[in-house]
Write a structure and sequence with these properties.
About 35% of the residues lie in helices and about 25% in strands. With about 300 residues, the protein is an alpha/beta fold. It starts with a helix and ends with a helix.
């Protein structure tokens, strides 16, 4: 979502009304660098109070009641450092952990907001800062276009956050062609993802099986791999990935006559363990077993036999 300066100022006016409703007492404002500068200046005009420019004046004092202002509360970590002062933001994300924040507009956790005073602070600029942090020259020929490539790459490899790119999961009524499928349907393939702790790749093989309900629906076989790819295209942990895949496929098959059982095994290699930290082979196996696959040992053994045959 891209905001014009007019829209942004209008949202700041909404914040002023929220502050009035909250009955907060203050006699000066401090805008957190840099995002809080414009909201602080605008609120200073509305409430006719001075705007602090020196953070040294933030020590709580009886005669100095400071309102801390920022543009956006994301995790809430920045605002949490300003203890003892009331806090206000123009936009608060739903994932924010700070509860005592006055805000104008609450937005979804995954929604990206581009504000008019952020020019010169793009994703590409932040990539360049990372290059500088590690001691690189972001302007050397080999890196000059890399920030743009990384921005485009992120849109591609993290498409799992974009509902519009979710795969259409085709299903068919069981028995439509005269054959009722009530045995194990097995599928295997590759997966690639990034761990949420260090943003390093983990990848490997998936082995999926389900038993259709005779009165339910069956999956188009290619859709399983597409769901694996979509759910993998997020910052993940391997254990959650298996659950995400099964949940998405379960929803596609419907609640009326759900499959009798569903299972997935993921065998991955984790570069966060192999290329940093422990620097040891990062092999990990995880499984999600639902319905009969969890309850029936013989059926579970048949599933693992199919995995051995596929390797």
């Amino acid at each position: 979502m891209k905001k014009t300066i007019e829209q942004y100022r209008s949202d700041i006016e909404l914040l002023a009304k929220a502050i009035e409703r909250a009955g907060v007492r203050f006699n000066c404002i401090y805008g957190i660098p840099r995002g809080g500068y414009l909201p602080a200046i605008e609120l200073g005009k509305i409430f006719h109070v001075p705007v602090l420019t020196d953070p040294a004046g933030l020590d709580p004092k009886e005669h100095l009641r400071v309102l801390i202002v920022d543009d956006l509360a994301d995790s809430g970590a920045t605002l949490a450092t300003y203890k003892g002062h009331p806090k206000a933001v123009v936009y608060k994300k739903m994932c924010c952990r700070e509860d005592d924040i006055i805000y104008a507009i609450e937005i979804p956790a995954r929604e990206w907001i581009e504000l008019p005073d952020e020019k010169g602070d793009t994703i590409q600029d932040n990539v360049r800062r990372i290059f500088q942090f590690i001691g690189e020259d972001p302007n050397r020929p080999g890196l000059i276009d890399t920030p743009d490539r990384i921005a485009r790459m992120c849109k591609e490899i993290f498409r799992g956050y974009d509902p519009s790119q979710a795969p259409k999961i085709t299903t068919f009524a069981n028995g439509t062609d005269g054959i009722v499928c009530d045995e194990i349907v097995f599928d295997a393939g590759d997966f690639y993802s990034l761990c949420e702790h260090h943003a390093r790749t983990f990848f490997g093989k998936y082995y999926f099986a389900y038993i259709p309900n005779p009165k339910g629906r069956i999956l188009g076989i290619s859709k399983i791999g597409r769901v694996v790819d979509y759910c993998s295209s997020r910052l993940q942990i391997q254990e959650r990935l298996g659950h995400d895949i099964c949940n998405m496929l379960m929803q596609a098959l419907g609640d009326e006559n759900p499959p009798v059982g569903m299972a997935i095994v993921l065998k991955g290699r984790h570069m966060c363990k192999e290329s940093r930290g422990a620097r040891k082979k990062g092999i990990m196996e995880s499984a999600v077993l639902l319905g009969r696959f969890k309850e029936d040992a013989a059926l579970r053994n048949e599933f693992y036999h199919l995995i051995e045959s596929a390797e």
